[in-house]
Design a protein that fits this description.
about 800 residues; alpha+beta; seven-stranded mixed β-sheet; five-stranded mixed β-sheet; about 30% helix; binds cytidine-5'-diphosphate
Length: about 800
């Protein structure tokens, strides 16, 4: 007699199943792009511009061509003859593949050499002589819009200045009225600095064009293989069905591997011209200096407040520095990503946001580094503003937030910028966090310590992030609607393979998608293999970024499993010789309602799908589901940090950090904790040590791991994680919300707020990240705000 299976034992939802992909990773058996070696493969290196802005007077590559082992030297001029000197970007802009007229940022791609090995190619790059005529350089939005500023994108018609967009959202007049009626107006101005996602594996590609079949296969480090296939079809004018993009194991992405980079295009053209595989693997400096940077937003805001602490309105203005090409991906309706997700957790009647994007002589910026488009900047500003406003009112930080939270019973809640949030228990999360950090006691300790000259501080940050773009009504990239997909094939023996349009880069999809199948069908997770990243086999999907995998592809896995279950029900009815209406389901088994002992397992149904199907039924047990989410999912989190600041040196240490994350139903609690730990580590690094900026000449300062410090276990403080609050997403098939980015999004403000709380008596309102010791020392010593905006100060 068959029985229902135990969900946790079969590795279903809620099981902290060990990551199956780690079997190969910890043995050094991962298969990364650079591990792939094809017969006859050549190697490509890129010559990059040393200057940030210069006219190219001439390029002489004759000496490079003469070097033995060199097969091809590509320049912009050659690319232009094939209409490939420029390519479209994911934001309706254009980007130079290889520079023709000017270089527009330091590190821009100027020429490529393809040779027998990478060393010859590198030497040959150095033999190329480029005659540059330097031009004035712009490194921030103030310079970009200054009277008489040089026009960076003079390649574009109808581009008389350096402004990319002027955008506004919200209710200008309503906000005006609310500010007129306010008791207190609190203001804050800050710069969220450029940062770099800096995955350990750099970007790269191996293009392999086969003249005999006309098929182009490209192995590449991409988070979004299907978008890349569409882009290659457009740029190289190749038929889409003759392009196969394979994204093998990826050594971290964090948004860095979403854009299309010139190196990909050049390796493809080189392979077509040479009819040999061409490998391009970027070096670390190349990655840090030229590929998608994140953030670089100047934020100004004000909050209209009633004396008792009620927020009446918010006004924000942002100036976003996008670098020389507007090339990050975002839904095309929202010029600055989802910046207007700010203040979604608070019940604010009216808000207005203006946003301006400008070009500068920096590498393209604005990628969604571990966040849903521009949400990190939005949440950072929100929580810095909340702290400043509470201080201006003389109110307790926690009480001010609690008073303004959207209450539990008010969902779905329409935010002042028009989003519809789904569910949450914000006050409960805050209470869990305050208890964990021992809030009241800490405030007493802080007061006592201050009387002895010790500076203790406590910072609170909350975040709610719109995760899971689309729905397709509102979200598209280059007109391609944002939905996702899953295909499930159950074999005759009840084993299965699931493929999705997402692409894991370390998040553990191979483990968690199998858990969703186990939850829906009762097939043990170990009997389900997960495959992603090959456009010839995976169903079409928009890839993995913006924590959209679980909300969209994960939902598609649940929905495709339900399709399979519906067919299996028919098979069960046939096997049990009853009508379908008389059949009930429990995990792993169908049974006859009136005789529960009479049942068949899902595995028995699988055999029947191939060996004993009813007359007229199509054989097989496989299906595909495309999932278009009705809404985004809105996880919530509270992060609380306590610190001690040394006023003599400006060094600050974390005493405690607690994190309360509510991401709805947790598929794999252990993986979720890993995601939060990783995010908090990145948040700590951004707030404390990661420094990459530009000097007045546009030189990228800090493009190496001596300056741009990756946190190791040595520096990283301990984190205390709490999972007590679970608010299922009402519209997701299994109630899950995204989690991958929450801690990186909400974490930075908690650290900064804590340091500013410690030095509150100085009257300092802001220190820009990273809060390096010299900046904190300057603030404490001279009682003044400290900006980190470029051009970089000589003493930084
Ligand atoms: O899109 P990305 O995979 O980066 O982010 P995510 O959808 O938030 O998922 C990150 C990892 O956490 C995946 O392995 C998810 O399946 C897992 N996860 C989970 O176990 N439970 C959730 N509620 C959300 C994510």
């Amino acid at each position: 007699m068959s029985q229902a299976v135990d969900e946790i034992k079969i590795g279903g939802i809620g099981a902290s199943r060990k990551r199956v992909e780690d079997n190969r990773f910890i043995r050094g058996k991962g298969n990364y792009t650079d591990d792939i070696v094809l017969p006859g493969m050549l190697h490509m290196e890129i010559l990059r511009s040393p200057l940030a802005h210069a006219r190219i007077k001439s390029i002489d590559a004759s000496k490079a061509w003469d070097i033995p082992g060199v097969h091809l030297v590509l320049t912009g001029e050659m690319m232009a003859t094939r209409n490939l000197a420029w390519m479209p970007t994911l934001s309706y802009d254009t980007q130079a593949v290889l520079a023709t007229d000017k270089v527009r940022f330091q590190g821009q791609e100027v020429a490529c050499v393809i040779a027998d090995d990478p060393y010859i190619a590198k030497d040959a790059c150095e033999a190329i002589v480029v005659d540059y005529e330097p031009l004035p350089v712009i490194v921030n939005p103030v310079q970009a819009v200054a009277e008489g500023a040089p026009v960076i994108r003079d390649d574009k018609e109808n581009q008389p200045d350096n402004v990319i967009y002027d955008w506004e959202v919200g209710d200008r007049d309503g906000a005006e009225r609310a500010f007129a009626a306010a008791d207190v107006v609190s203001k804050l101005e800050l710069h969220y600095p450029r940062s770099h996602p800096s995955p350990i594996e750099c970007c790269g590609s191996i293009a392999d064009f086969n003249r005999a079949t006309s098929k182009l296969t490209v192995y590449m480090t991409t988070q979004a293989p299907h978008i890349i296939r569409a882009a290659v079809a457009m740029v190289a004018e190749l038929p889409e069905h003759m392009i196969r993009i394979i994204s093998p194991d990826i050594g971290g992405g964090f948004g860095n591997k979403v854009p299309v980079y010139p190196g990909y295009v050049c390796s493809i053209l080189a392979s077509i011209l040479l009819e040999r595989p061409v490998k391009w693997i970027e070096d670390k400096s190349g990655n840090l200096i030229s590929t998608g940077f994140a953030r670089d937003v100047y934020l100004k805001g004000e909050m209209a407040l009633r004396r008792d602490g009620k927020i009446l309105a918010v006004r924000m203005h942002t100036d976003a520095d996008h670098g020389a090409f507007f090339s990050d991906a975002q839904p095309s309706k929202f010029k600055i990503g989802l910046m207007h997700s700010a203040f979604a957790a608070y019940d604010i009647p009216v808000a207005h946001l203006t946003a301006r994007g400008t070009y500068s002589n920096k590498a393209p910026g604005g990628v969604a580094y571990r966040c849903s488009f521009r949400v990190t900047e939005a949440m950072f500003f929100q929580e810095r503003m909340m702290q400043a406003a509470a201080d201006d009112l003389g109110m307790d930080q926690a009480a001010f937030r609690r008073m303004n939270f959207v209450p539990d019973e008010a969902f779905p809640h329409r935010t002042p910028f028009g989003f519809l949030t789904d569910s949450g228990q914000y006050a409960k999360c805050l209470d869990v966090g305050l208890t964990a950090i021992d809030y009241d006691n800490f405030r007493d300790q802080q007061a006592q310590a201050r009387s002895r000259g010790r500076l203790l501080g406590l910072g609170i940050s909350t975040m709610t992030e719109p995760l899971g773009a689309g729905n397709s009504r509102e979200y598209d990239i280059l007109g391609i609607k944002m939905f996702d997909s899953a295909e499930l094939k159950v074999h005759m023996t009840g084993k299965a393979i699931v493929r999705t349009g997402a692409r894991t880069q370390g998040q553990g999809h191979e483990t968690t998608w199998a858990q969703i199948v186990a939850h829906e069908l009762g097939i043990p997770a170990e009997d389900v293999v997960v495959e992603e990243g090959d456009t010839d086999t995976a169903p079409f999907g928009m890839g993995t970024y913006a924590s959209r995998s679980t909300p969209v592809a994960g939902a598609a896995v649940a929905m495709v499993s339900r399709k399979i279950r519906a067919k299996a029900r028919k098979l069960a009815a046939h096997l049990l010789e009853v009508s379908e209406e008389d059949i009930e389901w429990e995990l792993g088994r169908f049974y006859v309602r009136s005789a529960p002992d009479r049942g068949v397992t899902i595995q028995e149904c699988a055999v029947a799908a191939y060996a004993n199907m009813p007359d007229g039924m199509e054989p097989g047990l496989d299906a595909t589901a495309y999932y278009d989410p009705p809404n985004l999912t809105w996880p919530f989190a509270v992060y609380i940090v306590t610190v001690e600041v040394d006023p003599q040196t400006g060094v600050w240490d974390v005493l405690n950090m607690v994190a309360v994350d509510d991401c709805g139903v947790r598929i794999n609690p252990m993986i979720v904790e890993g995601q939060i730990m990783g995010g908090l580590t990145e948040a700590y690094a951004m707030s404390n040590m990661q420094f990459i900026t530009f000097d007045a000449d546009g030189n990228c300062v800090g493009a190496n791991y001596m300056d741009y410090l990756l946190p190791t276990a040595w520096e990283t403080p301990g984190f205390e994680l709490h999972s007590e609050v679970v608010t299922p997403c009402p519209h997701h098939p299994i109630g899950a919300k995204g989690i991958g980015e929450c801690a990186a999004v909400g974490g930075p403000a908690a650290f900064v707020n804590a340091v500013l709380d410690a030095i509150k008596d100085t009257g300092v309102r802001n220190i820009d990240m990273p809060l390096l010791p010299d900046r904190v020392w300057e603030a404490v010593t001279y009682h003044r705000d400290v900006s980190g905006a470029p051009p970089v100060r000589s003493d930084d």
